[in-house]
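Q: What would this chain look like folded?
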Amino acid sequence: MRKLNPITALYLKILEFISMLLINVGGKIDDFVDTKNATPEQIKRCNEQGEQIRRILRFWGHKF
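A: My prediction, written as structure tokens:
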């Protein structure tokens, strides 16, 4: 296998680093916002906010 262009190698290293960050940080954020740990009040508030967002998007012409 031939050696990669230095710019391509650097680009791939940057992509690998960003992927690693997204996986690690995303896993922690996912645990934080997981609905399994939410209280009934938090779920109710989330559903209400979702309905408000859906109303706004319908007003803008999006279909749900």
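The chain has two helices and no strands.
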